[in-house]
Design brief:
447 residues, alpha/beta, Fumarate Reductase Iron-sulfur Protein, Chain B, domain 2, Rossmann fold, 4 domains, five-stranded mixed β-sheet, four-stranded parallel β-sheet, 23 helices, 12 strands, disordered N terminus, binds iron/sulfur cluster
Length: 447
């Protein structure tokens, strides 16, 4: 497979030079339309949380009126979910994601990373070491967490809950269990179909690999049920989004290049993701962070054009087999920010859910408002993230649904906590698991 060549590469990207976002800053006319949709401002009502204030800060940093590492500037830069909601309501189309990422990258260039982030992010560059760490974590999690059998989740035990309470890890917090056997070890590297018509690579990402392997297995099962051969290379790394939002650009570039090499080797024509963040990385972020790289820039563009969320692949690239197994469930759907605002995927998951016999689909109010996860934002700003999540849980409750489905594992984690804490403990599920279950029931009833 040969990637197209690209000429006239930029010498640097906005990740390397804050001044490059000057043109984005100049587009802002301070109208304040972003206030209406910013989830953080929606709960704290503080002007400094709003997009236009952060834009003003970036401007002041560039003109030298403010220092990047001023504590107030630091607080503003990191009090953002990078959810892109403001970009959907901006009349002048300010690419605010570039501004906030450029600010964070500039801060890391100036001061380096805090030691804990540095240690974690360095480990990500060594997939085998990271994998070993996750397995040790899985084996030891019983010491600090108790199992909530009914919810398939874990919560902190005392005294860990007491210590972690300040970061939201109190005894009520619900999280998915870390698996002992990750998805990529549960399945062969190539899963064949009976009569394969296409072969695709599946980029699992870390969340499906370590926290939701069953959903990853469901995705593979759905593909093979539609005669698609699935390649799941073991050496894939984290997509890099959790690192990108912390400004560690060197690490993201290393991860992106490794992932491109690994996927390229499979020789497949398409790349499938089941996570909005991973999909956004491949379709958007890799292209931007590698734009000045003469080798990997063109490769990133090549793969961006061939990457599909599983729902888009099933509905636009092939025509998926309509399921016949009955689910008898009332389902609502939450639009992940990365899936809707980065990948523009929103109709396709609904089409899949509505195709399942017995499912009654109920749209919640404002399904595309952020759930409050923002990757690690929920850890660093748990109180605000929970207030945002509480609103989402209330919207879910109003639908009367017994299941809230989603296309991003990070949202699944946040919804799991929020519906159990503030809502009616609805089941949280990847939408692909609903389709897989319908196929399974169809098969079982045919026996
Ligand atoms: S909506 Fe856009 S133009 Fe208006 S203040 Fe916000 S970022 Fe600036
Ligand atoms: S990206 Fe999201 S959280 Fe950040 S300023 Fe925009 S709307 Fe607010």
């Amino acid at each position: 497979m040969t990637a197209a060549t690209k000429t006239n590469l930029p010498a640097k990207t906005y990740h390397d030079d804050l001044a490059i976002v000057r043109q984005e800053l100049d587009k802002c006319m301070k109208c304040g339309n972003c206030m209406a949709v910013c989830p953080v401002y929606g709960v704290d009502k503080v002007e400094s949380s709003v997009t236009r204030s952060k834009i003003a800060v970036a401007d002041a940093v560039l003109t030298g009126d403010l220092e990047l590492d001023d504590p107030q500037v630091y607080q503003m830069i990191f009090n953002c979910l990078v959810c892109k909601s403001c970009m959907t309501n901006c009349p002048t189309k300010v690419n605010f994601d570039r501004i906030i990422l450029a600010l964070r990258a500039a801060l890391v260039r100036k001061n380096g990373l805090p030691w804990l982030k540095k240690m974690i992010f360095s480990t990500l560059k060594h997939p085998k070491l990271f994998d070993a760490g996750m397995k040790i974590g899985a084996a030891m999690q019983g010491i600090a967490f108790r199992s909530n059998k009914n919810q398939k989740s874990i919560s902190p035990r005392s005294p860990f809950a007491y210590v972690g309470g300040g970061f939201g890890f109190d005894s009520e917090r619900q999280m998915p269990e870390l698996t002992i056997t990750p998805l990529r070890e549960r399945v062969p590297e190539v899963v064949t179909a009976k009569k394969p018509v296409l072969k695709v690579s599946f980029f699992t990402g870390d969340s499906l690999n370590y926290f939701y392997p069953e959903a990853g297995q469901d995705l593979i099962d759905v593909l093979t049920a539609n005669n698609i051969e699935v390649h799941i290379p073991r050496e894939q790394s984290c997509c890099g989004v959790p690192v990108l939002v912390h400004g560690d650009i060197d690490t993201v570039r290393t991860l992106a290049k490794n992932n491109i090499d690994v996927i390229e080797k499979t020789g497949c024509d398409y790349l499938i993701t089941g996570c909005g963040s991973c999909g956004g990385a491949w379709t958007h972020d890799y292209v931007e962070i590698l734009a000045s790289d003469p080798v990997y820039g063109p490769k990133a563009t090549f793969w961006a054009e061939r990457t599909y969320d599983i729902s888009t692949f099933l509905t636009k690239v092939i025509t998926f087999r309509k399921p016949e197994g009955v689910l008898d469930s009332v389902v609502t759907y939450h639009d992940s920010c990365h899936l809707k605002k980065s990948m523009k995927v929103f109709a396709e998951p609904r089409e899949i859910i509505k195709s399942i016999p017995g499912v009654t689909f109920k749209e919640m109010s404002a399904p595309d408002t952020c759930c409050g996860s923002g990757g690690s934002y929920v850890v660093s700003h748990y109180e605000t993230a929970s207030s945002i999540g509480r609103k989402k849980a209330e919207d879910i409750d109003k639908t009367g649904a017994d299941t809230v489905s989603v296309g991003c594992p990070a949202c699944m984690m946040q919804l799991l906590d929020n519906v159990n804490r503030f809502g009616k403990a609805q089941k949280t599920s990847h939408y692909i698991s609903l389709l897989a279950e319908s196929y399974r029931r169809e098969k079982a009833s045919a026996k």
